[in-house]
Design brief:
Radius of gyration: 36 Å
Order of helices and strands: HEHHEEEEEEHEEEHEEEE
Helix content: 25-40%
Number of strands: 14
CATH topology of the largest domain: Rossmann fold
CATH superfamily of the largest domain: Cell division protein FtsQ/DivIB
Strand content: 25-35%
Length: 267
């Protein structure tokens, strides 16, 4: 008995080109309509009064400035509403307020900003270019009202521009050494050639010379370890010392001058 083979299925009919063209055009028009609608909604949102900034929440360090003062200084520099405001520019506006070191700005739906502040914490005065400024704990120079710290009894750093961090680090290492003599390091100076000089609260001055931080500290500690014997022996306070000598130092007590034995001036 003969078996009949199934007839192959007919290929599907192709959609006419003009129909496919109309379908593609319709999809394109629909996409363009959606984009246009989205642009209209975005434009409305950028202008809608309901999204105007209504307030700023201030968190973080506000010891030197009140939140009201910070708002009063920064808000006039803010432009746009909740959607259009440039957060980078807003950050700079808050960081331009005196005593503000860093600001982190975020949007808070639907009409507010949240700002977290970090204030400068002052460590010293800076006299790098004749204009008194301040140095924070990170060694950064910043400007603020001098009257805000006039009672803080800050040390003074004076040196080339850009050296504030190195000078603050040196002061932190030298101050304990002089404290062993019950003297306070009031002013630390570094010349353009890198030579260090200390001025103490007693009025005494100490030339520390050049070298690395470790070398200057070693000379200072050697001086502190022996000078007390001389001031005790002669019953005279320290007036001046020059540590820029090999194997010793030159010393001047009030009313007496001397050169430590074997000391020769370093060139």
């Amino acid at each position: 008995m003969a078996t009949r083979r199934p007839r192959p299925a007919a290929p599907p009919a192709q959609t006419p080109f003009d129909v496919r063209l109309m379908n593609g055009a319709s999809a394109l028009l629909f996409t363009l309509a959606l984009l246009a609608f989205g642009a209209l909604v975005l434009g409305w949102a950028l202008r809608a009064p309901m999204f105007s900034l209504q307030g700023v929440r201030i968190d973080g360090d506000v010891a030197r400035n009140s939140a009201a003062t910070i708002r009063a200084n920064a808000m006039p520099r803010l432009a746009g509403n909740f959607f259009s405001i440039d957060l980078v520019r807003a950050q700079r506006a808050f960081e331009s307020v005196p005593w503000v070191r860093r600001a982190a700005v975020q949007r808070v739906w639907p009409d507010r900003l949240a700002v977290r502040l970090e204030e400068h914490r002052v460590a010293a005065w800076w006299q790098g270019d004749g204009n008194d400024r301040l140095v924070n704990l990170q060694g950064e120079v910043f400007e603020a009202n001098p009257g805000d710290v006039e009672d803080d009894d800050l040390p003074v750093l004076r040196g080339p521009e850009g050296s504030s961090a190195a000078m603050l680090a040196m002061h932190r290492r030298l101050a304990p050494a002089f404290a062993a003599l019950e003297l306070r390091l009031e002013r630390l100076t570094m010349s353009a050639r890198g030579s260090w000089r200390a001025e103490l609260d007693s009025g005494a001055e100490v030339e520390l010379g050049r070298g690395s931080e470790a070398e200057v500290l070693a000379r200072t500690e050697a001086f502190v370890g022996t000078v007390g014997q001389l001031t005790t022996r002669y019953q005279r306070p320290l007036a001046y010392a020059d540590l820029r000598h090999a194997d010793g130092y030159a010393l001047k007590l009030r009313g007496i001058g001397t050169l430590a034995p074997g000391a020769t001036t370093k060139k």
